[in-house]
Amino acid sequence: MTNNDLLRRLRYALNLNGETIAELCTLGGYEIRPIDVLKLLKKEEETGFVVCDDTVMGAFLDGLITSRRGAHDPKPGSAKTTGMALNNNLILRKLRIALELNDEAMLAILGKAGARLSKSELSAMFRAEGHRNYKPCGGQILRNFIRGLTLGGGNT
Fold first, then answer.
1. pTM value?
2. From CA 48, how far away is CA 152, in angstroms rounded?
């Protein structure tokens, strides 16, 4: 799933408009105008389409966390996720943090979309990449999670 597709899906799942998305990006450290957000939300074949890169998507997700949970001072020695290349695991982690979801809530959201995971399979996606129990989050799992949010599975 591309960042543009992810942004479009999250827009509907969380009931956001272009102005709100721009504000979230600003909170996350990336200045963007609402008119430019609309270009990111266009489909690839539409005139004026602009690719949403990892910097914009990361800022949006960080801004979503900040808007819902408040500013956060990183703990000394903790891994910094800003500037890291986005992958499905990191996106899922940031959504979990922003929406303040526990394992049961995440599994319920996935269940609304028809995805069945065990608690240990889910927790494996939140482990560090080098950990022996790490499991990559597939695109289908991320799509199902967002679909479950759209179907009313989250505390948006």
1. 0.88
2. 31
Structure tokens at 98: 């922003």
How far is it, in rounded angstroms, from Cα 2 to Cα 86? 11
**Tokens 């499991």 belong to which residue?**
135
Q: How many CB atoms lie within 10 A of CB 2?
A: 11
* 92: nearest Cα among 73, 109, 71: 109
- Number of Cβ within 10 Å of residue 32's Cβ equals 20
Contacts of 39 (CB under 8 A, 6+ apart): 48, 49, 50
What are 28's two structure tokens?
């996350």
**Tens-binned pLDDT, residue by residue, of the chain (156 aa):** 999 999 999 999 999 999 999 999 999 999 999 999 999 999 999 999 999 999 999 999 999 999 998 887 666 555 555 556 899 999 999 999 999 999 999 999 999 999 999 999 999 999 999 999 999 999 999 999 999 999 986 554
